[in-house]
Amino acid sequence: LTYFKTGEEAIKMTTDWQRVDPNRDYTHRFSLDKLNPETKYTVTIEARKSGSVHPTAILHGGFTTAARKDKIQKVTFTVATCTKFNTRDAGKRGYQIFDSMLTVNPSFFVHAGDNVYYDHFQPFATHIDLARYFWNRTYSLSYTRTFLQSVPAYFMKDDHDSWDNDSWPTMTSRMGAFTYEDGRKVYDEQVPMSD
Fold it and tell me: Which of 5, 21, 132, 191 is most solvent-facing, going by the fewest CB within 10 Å?
């Protein structure tokens, strides 16, 4: 991962290459430290196969940091919730709302939970690989992907993206081998948060 203040590419920070684990859906959480407030950053993420020197995938994006905590700042933010895959209103592009939200140039975005639905339509996420597939298909939609490449996001977890409807850890479920703890694990892979 490479990042720099937009317009100051000569002063860039680049992390070391990180090995990703197929048992964590090839995900990795990068922590970016010492960012300046109210600053636009450009980010490039590269991926390559083990043993290769050249990247096989490159993704460009960016974000703007918040003001200092002691400064009042006008912000515009957007919120969405309940992104059931079968409610897409833009076909293979996904949800029109993500394209529309870009037009207000939001400072940040909040997804208020139910990012995916493991339990609403057959097949249910009855094993961890199918749960990961639900995340991959939803967050590979072009409107969603384009939006999140340039807007910082805060994700909340709710019941359907945790496990089953109105679920709790000791509940019996129709989710087969996929457990409540599996649901927590997948969420933490897909939406990494700091301590």
Answer: 21
